[in-house]
Design a protein that fits this description.
This is Trafficking protein particle complex subunit 6B. It comes from Pachysolen tannophilus NRRL Y-2460. Belongs to the TRAPP small subunits family. BET3 subfamily. It is a single chain. The chain is of the alpha+beta class and 218 residues long. It has two domains: 2-69; 87-217, Trafficking protein particle complex subunit 3 (Muramoyl-pentapeptide Carboxypeptidase, domain 2, 2-Layer Sandwich), CATH 3.30.1380.20. Helices cover 61% and strands 11% of the residues. The protein contains six helices and four strands. It has a four-stranded antiparallel beta sheet with strand order 1-2-4-3, covered by helices on one side. Helix 1 (2-57) runs antiparallel to helix 4. The protein is globular.
Amino acid sequence: MSNQLHQTVVETDVDNDFEKQINVSCLEYLLMELGPLALRITDKLEKYSSSSTRESNGSGNGNDNKQVDDFHYGGVELFQNESLVSNEINNQMLDNFGFQIGKILIEQLIFLKNDGISTKMDEILDIMKIIARDVWKMIYQKQIDNLRTNHRGTFVLIDNSHRLISSMYGPDKHRISGLYLNFSCGVIKGVLNQSAFKANVEADLKSDGSVHYTIVVI
């Protein structure tokens, strides 16, 4: 009887670990898709705007609508378009994605930590600790490696191995990684905003592959 019980417990643990791995992988794939998604949306909007301009000038042709409808789901070829990757619309879009997710995550975390009571945190340092520990682990399956502050409203979060960009390589790594760093900055701003703080957040990818987030509370 005890052997059967032990076997059942082991099988349950294995199943739980397997389900967790699947969930983590799915989340990571979804986060990685944010970059190409933003590029495809921006590309489509630009084509639509260009097509509308030509039609209004009477210089459009039958192929314009086909180009607008050609969305290329799942493709990442647009990463090669340097002007599109550096388009400010992409940066703002990914920042907004992160901002909304950050607001929701901190609300849920505080709700769970306070036994179902939703409250706001008043201490900025406590919020930074939650970002570094809990928020980062929920999104990237790891904690921030280092948290620094001058105790005058400036904080630096250091991620030595950003999960979404640590596997990138090649000459375009710095340019493409900026898309995902905008998302991370948005998450931080969303958490702070939900806690009634506003801040300027900048991310800097260092030569050793670490990412330094500088947060200046306004």
